[in-house]
Amino acid sequence: MNHPATTSTLTPRTTRFKLPHLRWTICGLLFFASTVNYIDRQTIAVLKTHLQEAFRWSESDYGWIVFSFQLAYAIMMVVSGRLIDRLGVRLGFSLAMAWWSLAAMAHAVCRTVFQFQAARFLLGAGEAANFPASIKSVAEWFPKKERALATGLFNSGTNIGAVVGTSMVAWLTLQWNWRAAFIFTGALGFIWLLGWPLLYRAPEAHPWLRKQELDYISSDEGETTTQARPRLPWRAILRRRQAWGFVLGKFLTDPIWWFYIFWLPSYLEQARGYSLKQIGMVGWVPFFAASFGGMLGGWMSGDWMKRGWTLNRARKSALLVTALLMPAGIAAVLAPKAWAALALISLAMAAHQGWSANIFTLASDVFPKKDVGTVVGLGGAAGALGGMIIAPVAGYILEYTHSYIPLFIIAGVMHPLAIGVVHWLIPKVEAVEST
């Protein structure tokens, strides 16, 4: 929530100007932020081979550069989630966007492995706030039956960011140089900053929100009284097995997305013979498919709830369906044709984003709105910790075996394992007591 000093003079009745369906405008801004977030983190993956040749990086050097991002991301996920709960989404998200945009642009002046590690660390520290802020915004602005869809929609920005970023970075590099790619993509965040502070408020304090929409947003039973209770302390959150179900689910599956983000372009180049120009032409396809996977996964559980399914059955079923599609990645690395591999990778990445839309929503299904940022931060930190493990492991596997097969096998089995862990620790998806 925003501080009282920020919102006390702003109520839905302070102006006659109202925007219809304002919650979806907010979702659009979250989509834009996620798009910028992934353009900035994807830039170095597209340029990996180019920078390796320019600076004579080894595969393990690149692995440790990625590790630096993951280290900062893991640390700041915990911190940023709590800060978002305290500062409010409007201010906290604005500060984070400004930070990571400057850090992205700073890559342009790097020369050594250590300098790139430092720039990646600063980027990860800022980008860590994106998901705690976005999930908290969805919890504030959407009833439970729409949250997975809203999450899938804004989270599809991560894929569009990778789609746009792959082509944009390749074009900027070929047109000018790699430094221009970092500067231009980093500057995009300042465009978002023109709109977010102006448009975002908590629903009950937004002057442009219609009463009918406010009533709809607040329609979930029990949430209003739950919000009146004090914020849960760290110890109380970590004592709940539901928190550990979310945290371990993220720990097991987030590294797979990191693997696809940071190694897919080089896989296409090294194992499938694509040039940088060809990667710019087709490397966006799996991410484009993933954007639909995220939206479909979010819509699927919401539609089942509208048909009368319980929250528990709908959310768990969506997680199960998407988890069982992930072994498509194993088939991809074994496929004889490059186009078949690209299609199977696209399916796996779409399934992961469908999974992501629903596991993210578990945090707001189970915990009060005022604690969502903290819980998402814990899960994101766990996911980043898993990414810290996969980064140097991937680097050394590639350096010593020159094969992507072990990595794609790992990518194919983690989600089916994770759904078992989630079901064990969260046998029933329902709100916890805020005591």
Task: Describe the protein in words.
- This protein is mostly helical.
- It has one domain: MFS general substrate transporter like domains (Growth Hormone, Chain: A).
- It is 78% helix and 0% strand.
- The chain has 22 helices and no strands.
- Helix 15 (241-270) runs antiparallel to helix 20 (338-366).
- Mean pLDDT is 85; it is low at 1-13.
List keywords for this structure.
single chain; 435 residues; mainly alpha; Growth Hormone, Chain: A; 22 helices; globular; disordered N terminus
Q: H/E series, N to C?
A: HHHHHHHHHHHHHHHHHHHHHH
CATH 2nd-level architecture: Up-down Bundle
Strand fraction band?
A: under 5%
User: What are the segments in which pLDDT stays under 50 over at least 5 consecutive residues?
Assistant: 1-13
Approximate helicity band: over 70%
Shape: globular
Give the tally of β-strands.
0
Just give the CATH class: Mainly Alpha
Assembly level: single chain
Mean pLDDT: 85
The assigned structural class equals: mainly alpha
Helix tally equals 22
CATH-assigned fold name: Growth Hormone, Chain: A
Largest sheet: none
CATH superfamily descriptor: MFS general substrate transporter like domains
Query: What is the terminal-to-terminal distance?
Result: 19 Å
Total number of distinct structural domains: 1
Query: Measured on Cα atoms, how large is the radius of gyration?
Result: 21 Å
Question: How would you summarize this macromolecular structure in one to three sentences?
Answer:
The protein is an all-alpha fold. 78% of the residues lie in helices and 0% in strands.
